[in-house]
Write a structure and sequence with these properties.
Helix content is 77%, strand content 0%. It is mainly α. The protein has one domain. Helix 2 packs across helix 4. The C terminus is likely disordered.
Length: 228
């Protein structure tokens, strides 16, 4: 595969990742608003206010629907992300970076290996970013792109994962309105962290896409100058 073809393939896949991330952001906002409604309902129940079964069931149905939509968007985005990530990492060889630290096949595999998935995918993303930036430097010193976004994104990604798991465990044991109030508060924090992580992920994929496109332009031969 030629460099231009590899980067063009990566660029097409980025579009799908962005669609998925935007869907996650929108659904995250909807989830926060829905949780606010549930929070008010639970506070009223804790204060002794009575509601008919229809009101409570409507709240539960709404929460359940939003949760399923979020799961669907997450699965779609994760699949698109892995397909894009595999191509973006594979492009390092096409960019002339033959000594990549990992094989292109592990660009997918390491996301599923316990413990390794907490560190190595971040390292691979950083490698894509820095080596793509170096390949795109046309003249002078290699550019030092602001890769600090990667740390913020990864911290948000891990934080959201922890909050989601804790909220899921607590929701299984919650019974009283007060317990559900706490679970709802934690869920809102989790949704907000998911929104932040998705926004930062948009920055990461957009930046890597731009860096690899710039690398293609840098590798293009200079147009011949006609002699008078």
């Amino acid at each position: 595969m030629e460099l231009a073809d590899g980067v063009a393939s990566q660029h097409r896949r980025v579009a799908w990742v962005k669609h998925g991330l935007i869907a996650c952001i929108v659904l995250g906002i909807v989830a926060v608003l829905s949780n606010l409604g549930q929070y008010d309902l639970l506070n009223d129940l804790a204060a002794g206010v009575s509601f008919d079964d229809g009101t409570i069931e409507a709240n539960d149905d709404r929460q359940r629907l939003i949760a399923w939509l979020q799961r669907g968007a997450l699965v779609f985005t994760a699949a698109c992300w892995l397909v894009w990530f595999h191509r973006a990492y594979g492009n390092l060889k096409l960019l002339g970076r033959k000594h990549a630290h990992y094989g292109a096949g592990w660009a997918v595999g390491y996301w599923f290996i316990p413990l390794a998935h907490l560190v190595i995918p971040y390292q691979m993303t950083r490698e894509i970013w820095l080596k793509s930036a170096s390949a795109g430097a046309v003249t002078g010193e290699p550019r030092r792109p602001r890769a600090r976004w990667l740390g913020f994104w990864w911290a948000g990604y891990l934080t959201n994962g922890v909050l989601g798991r804790v909220a899921a465990v607590l929701s299984n044991d919650a019974e009283s309105p007060d317990e559900w109030v706490f679970v709802t508060q934690l869920s809102m924090v989790g949704d907000l962290s998911a929104i932040v992580a998705a926004v930062l992920a948009l920055v990461v994929v957009s930046s890597i896409d731009r860096l690899q496109l710039e690398a293609v332009r840098a590798a293009a031969p200079e147009p011949a100058v006609a002699l008078a």
